[in-house]
Specification:
about 160 residues; globular
């Protein structure tokens, strides 16, 4: 495991009892401290940074499922973020990550950004990830085992993705 994967794995953990109620149905919680250099000219977290955080959280989620070991090719097909409240330094965000919808070759991942300083959800987001074959050209369906692992993890936290 390279250092980027180790860092992401350490920052993203399976949800625990001491997380806020707003994140209780998210199986993976990514802990993300805000850095001073991520502020923009308006003195709040730059909008681009939310996407970087989502990427790290998404990797943690896929690692929790055993799907980020270098053997699988995925591509980000779409992403969006809804900013609910400004975030300022210092703060730590807890990003809840879960599967919103499990498709044949894709997954819609849902994020909830919780500010520990504000004790509130400050943003929500979603991303569509598509699985590709080893050539990176054609879509490849999730295996039965992968689907079962994902559904079991989600069920453990009281959530059932759409199909």
């Amino acid at each position: 495991m390279d250092s980027l994967n180790q860092e992401s794995h350490l920052a993203s953990t399976l949800a625990e009892d001491h997380n806020p109620d707003e994140l209780s149905h998210y199986p993976v919680i990514h802990h993300q401290p805000i850095h001073w250099g991520e502020m923009d000219a308006f003195n709040h977290l730059n909008n681009v940074v939310y996407y970087r955080y989502a990427e790290s959280a998404r990797i943690g989620y896929l690692q929790a499922l055993g799907m980020f070991d270098g053997s699988m090719i995925t591509v980000l097909a779409q992403s969006s973020c809804q900013y609910l409240r400004p975030v300022i330094y210092p703060d730590t965000l807890l990003l809840g990550v879960r599967c919103q919808r499990l498709g044949r070759t894709s997954i819609v991942i849902e994020y909830s950004y919780y500010s520990t300083a504000q004790q509130a959800v400050v943003a929500t987001a979603e991303a569509v990830v598509v699985r590709l074959d080893s050539s990176g050209k054609d879509k490849l369906p999730w295996t039965i085992e992968e689907r079962e692992r994902l559904l079991a993890l989600e069920a453990k936290f009281g959530h059932t993705p759409e199909y």
